[in-house]
Write a structure and sequence with these properties.
Number of helices: 3
Shape: extended
Order of helices and strands: HHH
Distance between the termini: 63 Å
Length: about 110
């Protein structure tokens, strides 16, 4: 049984790695073609994170400092891995564009 569980974990992590690579590829293709969509997605992601930080702070006061998350393995987490990689790639490209812009201003 343990061998089956180990191979199941390897398949899951292989799928996560594959979807992360696909996320980088899709991000590379879409970052310059659909610039407004990238800005919109990054803006909504930022608004969601700010809402999560400020709204959930009141609820988490009574919770212990060390919160352990169990990470169930399912289809929604594979999709989450893909979308997270895509958003992180877009955000990284936006930071690089900002640095190129600042270097262009300073030279």
């Amino acid at each position: 049984m343990q061998y089956f569980s180990r191979s199941k974990n390897q398949i899951f992590f292989s799928l996560v790695a594959l979807l992360s690579l696909v996320g980088v590829y899709v991000g590379f293709i879409t970052v310059d073609r659909y610039e407004n969509i990238v800005h919109g997605v990054l803006g909504f992601t930022l608004l969601y994170l700010l809402y999560f930080v400020f709204k959930s702070r009141k609820r988490m006061i009574t919770e212990p400092r060390e919160v352990y998350l169990e990470f169930p393995r399912g289809l929604k987490y594979l999709i989450f891995a893909f979308l997270l990689t895509l958003i992180m790639f877009w955000a990284g490209v936006q930071v690089v564009h900002l640095l190129w812009y600042l270097i262009g201003i300073l030279t």
